[in-house]
Write a structure and sequence with these properties.
seven-stranded mixed beta sheet, about 0% helix
Length: about 120
């Protein structure tokens, strides 16, 4: 089970940190990802981190502004979002899976999903 939190309303240029707490799985053996779905849009990849924490992947739209991190001792993955833009408005989902390298950005590579947390960025 994955439980995401930390969403809210923020002005453009502001920051938020999302958290995703995992239970019932061997957290350290899973890659963790964040995806988002904006109004009227398809779900899209945001970022992911391999289970070792050594490799991270970002969508071009968030590179340099968002940072993924994980604390295996707390079974938690974080998404630090800085320099938020109105186009970042979306429901953000955390996910856990064991994707092959070529599939790390694909939603179907992740078996477990959190319930989503809404991020709204006002202009």
């Amino acid at each position: 089970q994955l439980q995401a939190s930390g969403g809210g309303l923020v002005q453009a240029g502001g920051s938020l940190r999302l958290s995703c707490a995992a239970s019932g799985l061997t957290f350290s053996s899973y890659a963790m990802g964040w995806f988002r779905q904006g109004p009227g849009k398809e779900r899209e990849f945001v970022t992911a981190m391999r289970w070792s924490g050594g490799s991270t992947y970002y969508a071009d739209s968030v590179k340099g502004r968002f940072t993924i991190s994980r604390d295996n001792a707390k079974n938690t993955v974080y998404l630090q979002m800085n320099g938020l833009k109105p186009e970042d408005t979306a429901v953000y989902y955390c996910a856990a899976g064991r994707p092959v390298l070529s599939g790390v950005r694909a939603a179907q590579s992740y078996a477990y999903w959190g319930q989503g947390t809404l991020v709204t960025v006002s202009s």
